[in-house]
Amino acid sequence: MAQELLSLQGLRIDGRRQNELRQIQCRLGVLERCDGSAYMLHGNTKVIASISGPKHPTKNSANKNRGGDEFIFNVRVKFATFSKNGERQKVVKNSKKLGEIEINLKNIFKSVILVEKYEKSQLDLNIEILQTDGSEICTVVNAATLALIDAGICMKEYICACTASLTNDGVALLDVSHLEEICGGPTLTIAALPRTGDHEQSVAYVELSQKFYLKDLNKIFDCALMGCEKIRGILDEAIRSNAFELVNSELTNN
Amino acid sequence: MAYNALSEAEKVFILHGIQDDFRNDGRSRRDFRPMELQTNVIASACGSARFCIANSDILVGIKPEIDAPFPDKPEEGKIEFHVDCSANALLDFEGRGGEELALEISNCLRITYASPFAFDLKSLCILPKHQCWKLYVDILILQCAGNLYDAISFAVKSAFYNLRIPRVNSALLDGGNVDLVLSDDPSDCDRLDVQSIPILLTICKIGEHCVIDPSIDEEICSSSNIVVGVSRNKIVSLKTISGGSFHPDTIENCIDLAISTAKTLDNTLMNILKHEESLTKSKKNIKCSFLN
Amino acid sequence: MKETILSNNERVFVEKSIEEVLRIDKRQLTEFRNLGIFFGKKYGSVLVSLGDTRVFANVSCEVNIPKTTRPNEGTVFINVEMSNEKMSESCIVTTRILERTIRDSRCIDLESLCIIAEEKVWNLRVDVSILNNEGNVTDCACIAAVSALAHFKRPDCTTSGDGEFIIHKSSEKDLIPTVLHHYPICMTYALFKGKIPIADPTLLEERVTNAGLTLGINSYKEICSLHMTGVSLTSPFLIQKCSEMAAERAKHVVEFIKSTLEQDSIDREKSNVKGFKQSIILTNVTSNFCDEQSIDNNAEEISEVASNHDEIIVVSQEQKFKKIDENTISTTKWKDENEETSSSDSEIITLSQSNQEKSKVESMQIDSSDDEEKETIILN
């Protein structure tokens, strides 16, 4: 590792503490022509997610489903060509990385959406990643959760995603930025349903890159899960304030 | 290109409204819808802007790269336009639906900017015959509510205004290789002269009358559309879109209408851009973020 | 090729049996299938079988321009091909898991692949083709890719100062082996109802559970990758439990790869390269857990594997079976019919082949004359 991820004073490269999230801002209903949409700013990562549906399956996706009655969930992810620092991203079709993200998102949300309510219908999730600064997948998941809620889709719970990393000395770091990603620490991305009532936290998706010792897995896991809980609070607040605003504007209009 | 299906009655309503100079959103034939502008929204691009006309929402990011000039134009830089229709914008854009429209728009921009009156490509030259800047102008259509051409041209102009190209301190020819020394200070950069950068205006013929800034419903009702590229009272491009035909006299009327509208709009746009810049300068430490 | 529809009966049968801690192929829930690694005549080509799943991996190298961000490092490209579709979902997922496990864990010494910094580096290309999918393709593909990389040797290069270099033929200079810092191994557990992990799922089990957890672990108990496939909700505790089980297994797999590599180099010195033909007649068998089991199963299995490849061997087992300790690999050699040799210190396995019958098939060029020495590693 070229650079130490945590200074002696316990501060990270961007001045955060070990278990501190970056700034998160989110908004619901940013696009008016969709059934549900959300904008998410996580550090410098900017993502717009939108939902269209539930609707009658289009011919194309019905064919892919071979005429089954199952719920069809399509995900499309796009990185804007100017989203990354440095060179302009080329427009690539069918890239494996994008394909993987799309498959993962599909699986994550199929596990929380009450699928049985949406048989014979189709739901499209579109993601535009405008700017990237690490933890893209987790920002995308959080934005998509908000968009789904904005669209009024039935879900079991909020699904929140968060990343965690590990320093050389085995200290877990919450919410990895791009700079920390390229500095070479391991990155764990986790998408989880938070603890509610009797239900324990359950994990819908994990992804890990770079190696570290097995005994540290506990630490990094707990750190990421704690981040998920924190993010749940932020999402919840955004949804509540959005609902409050909606009610208020309805009242003043009438 | 539109998604909304309109009934005959709705079409007739819009048509009659325009005859009486009273459009269905309360505007007259010469009115624009409310516009919104924000520059420097994407930190990873060297110049960026977001421009909305009502719900038509456009995001533009410009990235410069060093390239070799064309052999037949050794002293000129290059510009490349790329339009990306987000599937959020219109249901028609799903899958390959938006590609045709995207190509049409980027071609129109390319033709408009190719005019020598429109854009001084020589300002992008670093070392004649060897190196020049190539500007990638990437346009992302986030939402579409009609009048895309106008919105995109304003957004591109704003992004050019916001564009900061790293300053080249020295360029030396050493044998066959070019040695470039770029400035290390990120605030030390070159800006482009945007005065002459053209804007596009769509004139939409509905019934017997011409309107500007058509909404998506009006675009469906229109018999023909013409896009006029205007740069400082000069016409730099003309293009009819989505079929239909014009009488030569109507085209003249349209051009007159376009030039007069463009003049005021261009001035307003420049004033707003300057005003916005002074705002962000005075509040230097406040982080302006997209959509917030 | 369209997938056949999974019937409800099949689904319920598998679900019920797993609830009763039973598996269709008589394995324990945490038991892996037999693993076999066979090296080809060329360096860097390997055939790996895991149960009936078969994967072929081939490593090749070419000179390439390095990435601008890492000018003194070689590159690794991994390509997974499945015969049915070009860009199927499982193909993308497998490729990405392999990329993460092998490339991103930096197990290959990339700096040693540099020829001239910023100008020329070696690019290792790993082509993995799935020959037969009977479940758990990822593990099999990962073992194949890692052992192919470890087996691969590239030609030597000398640079002559001013940006020129010579690639030597193998006759001029010895080939250089690839340096692997560690061997990351993928271990897949199917997550049944998100609660019960099942090691090394078969295709049927994969389709019933529809969710899995793949862990990449090396023999030093370092986690290199972690990936959840399919639609499921699991507790974080379960993932940690799986990772511990996987770490145990990884050690044995790495040992097995290393011992096979060693055996291969010994064979090569004796210029006794067997190629892939050995994979067809005999299978290498490993396993973690060794409960008492009639050796008949083994014989059946061997004949079953063989018959899959149009080669019929009937091996009947007469007597004796003794329990073998966990996690030991014992080597049994046999030369001829009815000849019994066992070369293990603590355990005795007696295999007697009373009737060995072979029928050759034109398409497979198998030279299986009886005097040829063959080797099986049996652990069960």
From TrEMBL, chain A:
Subcellular location per the Swiss-Prot or TrEMBL entry: Cytoplasm; Nucleus, Nucleolus
Any Pfam family: RNase_PH
Main location: cytoplasm
Function: Non-catalytic component of the RNA exosome complex which has 3'->5' exoribonuclease activity and participates in a multitude of cellular RNA processing and degradation events.
Domain of life: Eukaryota
GO biological process: nuclear mRNA surveillance; poly(A)-dependent snoRNA 3'-end processing; rRNA catabolic process; U4 snRNA 3'-end processing
Keywords assigned: Cytoplasm, Exosome
Keyword Nucleus: no
Stored InterPro entries: ExoRNase_PH_dom1, ExoRNase_PH_dom2_sf, PNPase/RNase_PH_dom_sf, Ribosomal_Su5_D2-typ_SF, RNase_PH
Membership in a protein family: Belongs to the RNase PH family.
KW Cytoplasm (keyword) present: yes
Domain Exoribonuclease phosphorolytic: 20-153
Protein name per its UniProtKB record: Putative exosome complex component RRP41
CC annotations in GO: cytoplasmic exosome (RNase complex); nuclear exosome (RNase complex); nucleolus
Gene3D superfamilies (UniProt xref): GHMP Kinase, N-terminal domain (3.30.230.70)
Record text on subunit structure and interactions: Component of the RNA exosome complex.
GO molecular function: RNA binding
Xref: PANTHER family: EXOSOME COMPLEX COMPONENT, EXOSOME COMPLEX COMPONENT RRP41
From TrEMBL, chain B:
Alphabetic keyword roster: Cytoplasm, Exosome
GO CC field: cytoplasmic exosome (RNase complex); nuclear exosome (RNase complex); nucleolus
Subcellular location: Cytoplasm; Nucleus, Nucleolus
Any one Gene Ontology BP term: nuclear polyadenylation-dependent rRNA catabolic process
Keyword rRNA-binding on entry: no
Domain Exoribonuclease phosphorolytic: 31-166, 197-260
Gene3D superfamilies: GHMP Kinase, N-terminal domain
GO molecular function list: mRNA 3'-UTR AU-rich region binding
CDD domains for the chain: RNase_PH_RRP42
Family, per entry: Belongs to the RNase PH family.
Protein name stated in the entry: Ribosomal RNA-processing protein 42
Species: Polypedilum vanderplanki
Automatic annotation (TrEMBL), chain C:
Domain of life: Eukaryota
Cited Pfam families: RNase_PH, RNase_PH_C
Cleaved signal peptide residues: none
Gene3D superfamilies given in the database record: GHMP Kinase, N-terminal domain (3.30.230.70)
Keyword field: Cytoplasm, Nucleus, RNA-binding
Subcellular localization: Cytoplasm; Nucleus
GO cellular component assignments: cytoplasmic exosome (RNase complex); nuclear exosome (RNase complex)
InterPro entries: ExoRNase_PH_dom1, ExoRNase_PH_dom2, ExoRNase_PH_dom2_sf, Exosome_comp_Rrp42_subfam, PNPase/RNase_PH_dom_sf, Ribosomal_Su5_D2-typ_SF, Rrp45
Example of a GO MF term: mRNA 3'-UTR AU-rich region binding
Chain coiled-coil ranges: none
Exoribonuclease phosphorolytic domain boundaries: 31-155, 182-248
GO annotation terms (biological process): exonucleolytic trimming to generate mature 3'-end of 5.8S rRNA from tricistronic rRNA transcript (SSU-rRNA, 5.8S rRNA, LSU-rRNA); nuclear mRNA surveillance; nuclear polyadenylation-dependent rRNA catabolic process; rRNA catabolic process; TRAMP-dependent tRNA surveillance pathway; U1 snRNA 3'-end processing; U4 snRNA 3'-end processing; U5 snRNA 3'-end processing
Chain spans, region Disordered: 332-380
PANTHER family in alphabetical order: EXOSOME COMPLEX COMPONENT RRP45 (PTHR11097:SF14), EXOSOME COMPLEX EXONUCLEASE RIBOSOMAL RNA PROCESSING PROTEIN (PTHR11097)
Similarity field: Belongs to the RNase PH family.
Name of protein: Exosome complex component RRP45
